[in-house]
């Protein structure tokens, strides 16, 4: 495949203008290409498996808006329903039948949840779920795992120091130490440190929040027994187990990671796919916990645009399309084809990589070592990734601009798209 030297002059100019009026020129940090060098691409439109930048370049897209666009971009069914919905008004601040319909669709797919509340982002979902868990248990401390991202709420912007158990130190200026000190961070996939932490503090922990597959350090799979142990131990200590399925929900399976691994959490957070590309998050769980939420109970949580009719419409149409027979088999086959091709391309190019995948989310690490947590993910050679990323962009393949992000497959990716991607990957790998 000929490497075409793409021009990015319009993106570059827009980025300069953006940097004058928006911090770092972007409205979410990872978009800024800081980890790979260069300027972000400014996108003008998208269709199916492809996105197009303002310079007229096209790319086969494996970012998919960081996960939501599982049907592919501008799916005709979603677009048609949205056009109709716009005509009826874009927001009322009053309940609609659409909210009930989406809630019912989600609850049917996630039997661990009796009730669900719609919000506007994954961040809101996790923040609100933790508040509910604290209100329900009357406890303040929470446990999260190193490398798991649960949005940017204060108490969640905390990572571990070394050692089995570390009291939280904020990752970001602006997060009061007093918030962070209630967050305990443990290594993912480490049953021993989990047991130790719960033996010491189990009865003062409100909740454990976990990404059942960690998509925010690439794609890290739970080791056999890890999620089961988490379920058993949290139950023993009366701790609310929260699965953050903002990324994995309707992605690794229709019923999410909880269906895939057969675990019933007490609460679940969703986002991304359930909004079909519009801003949506949701949290839900057992009746007794969700009954704590205002106005049914005393735990306050609200939102002017929550349950927005356009967002509900995109979500409903997306989930209905996903509930069709054979859909997950199809995306599994595409993802498996990409996996086989990328693994083989790396072998042929003589580049040491590790590939991990859960359904249609995946990651190639530039390391020989097994990756099972934050520390092992960090063994990946990020300079190699940056060169690979550039080589792929030049060949019209859009990957997330960071080693520590998952890639996503959509139902719109064709066999030809995947063959093109594998060919590009082989050539890009040979260059690094
Ligand atoms: C697992 C997980 N939880 C929460 C969030 C936060 O969601 P949002 O960006 O919609 O606030 C993300 C975002 O990527 C996520 O991957």
Summarize this structure as a short list of keywords or feature phrases.
eight-stranded mixed β-sheet, globular, binds pyridoxal-5'-phosphate, four-stranded mixed β-sheet, alpha/beta
Task: Tell me what the structure shows.
- With 432 residues, the chain is of the alpha/beta class.
- It contains 14 helices and 17 strands.
- α2 packs antiparallel against α10 (309-322) and α11 runs parallel beside α14.
- Residues 160-166 have low confidence and may be disordered.
- Bound molecules: pyridoxal-5'-phosphate.
- Pyridoxal-5'-phosphate binds next to α4.
- Pyridoxal-5'-phosphate binds at residues 66, 121-123, 126, 149-151, 211, 215-216, 244, 246-247, 271, 281.
Structure described in brief:
This protein is an alpha/beta fold.
Structural class: alpha/beta
How many strand units? 17
Instruction: Give the number of helices.
Output: 14
The oligomeric state of the chains shown is single chain
| Rg calculated over all Cα atoms | 21 Å
> Roughly how much helix do the residues carry, as a percent range?
25-40%
What ligands can be seen in this structure? pyridoxal-5'-phosphate
Distance between the termini: 16 Å
Numbering strands along the chain, what is their spatial order in the largest sheet?
4-13-12-11-10-5-9-7
Biggest beta sheet attributes: 8 strands, mixed
Beta-strand content bin: 15-25%
Mean pLDDT across the residues is 95
Outline:
globular
Unreliable spans are 160-166
């Amino acid at each position: 495949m000929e490497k075409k030297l793409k021009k990015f002059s319009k993106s570059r100019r827009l980025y300069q203008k953006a940097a004058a009026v928006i911090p770092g020129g972007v409205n979410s940090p990872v978009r800024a290409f800081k980890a790979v060098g260069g300027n972000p691409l400014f996108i003008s439109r998208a269709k199916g498996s492809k996105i197009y930048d303002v310079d007229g370049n096209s790319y086969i897209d494996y970012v998919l808006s960081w996960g939501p666009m599982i049907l592919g971009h501008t799916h005709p069914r979603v677009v048609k329903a949205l056009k109709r919905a716009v005509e009826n008004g874009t927001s009322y601040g009053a309940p609609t039948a659409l909210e009930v319909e989406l809630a019912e669709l989600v609850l049917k797919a996630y039997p661990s949840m009796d009730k669900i509340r719609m919000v506007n982002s994954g961040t809101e979902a996790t923040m609100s779920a933790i508040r509910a868990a604290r209100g329900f248990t009357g406890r303040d401390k929470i446990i999260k795992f190193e490398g798991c991202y649960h949005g940017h709420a204060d108490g969640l912007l905390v990572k571990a120091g070394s050692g089995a158990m570390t009291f939280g130190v904020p990752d970001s200026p602006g997060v009061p130490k007093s918030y962070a000190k209630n967050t305990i961070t443990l290594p993912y996939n480490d049953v021993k440190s989990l047991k130790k932490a719960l033996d010491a503090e189990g009865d003062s922990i409100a909740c454990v929040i976990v990404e059942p597959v960690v998509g925010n350090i690439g794609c890290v799979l739970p080791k056999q027994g890890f999620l089961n142990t988490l379920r058993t131990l949290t139950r023993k200590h009366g701790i609310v187990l929260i699965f953050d399925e903002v990324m994995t929900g309707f992605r690794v399976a229709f019923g999410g990671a909880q269906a895939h691994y057969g675990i019933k959490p007490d609460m679940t957070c969703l986002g991304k796919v359930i909004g079909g590309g519009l801003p949506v998050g949701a949290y839900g769980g057992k009746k007794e916990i969700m009954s704590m939420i205002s106005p049914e109970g005393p735990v306050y949580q609200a939102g002017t645009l929550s349950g927005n009719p356009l967002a509900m419409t995109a979500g409903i149409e997306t989930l209905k399309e996903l509930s069709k027979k054979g859909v997950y088999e199809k995306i599994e086959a595409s993802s498996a084809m990409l996996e086989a091709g990328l693994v083989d391309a790396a072998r042929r190019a003589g580049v040491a990589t590790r590939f991990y995948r859960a359904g249609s989310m995946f990651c190639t690490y530039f390391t020989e070592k097994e990756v099972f947590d934050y520390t092992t993910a960090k063994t990946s050679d990020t300079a190699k990734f940056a060169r690979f990323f550039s080589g792929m962009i030049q060949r019209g393949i859009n990957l997330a601009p960071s080693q520590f992000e998952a890639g996503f497959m959509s139902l719109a990716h064709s066999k030809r798209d995947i063959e093109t991607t594998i060919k590009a990957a082989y050539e890009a790998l040979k260059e690094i």
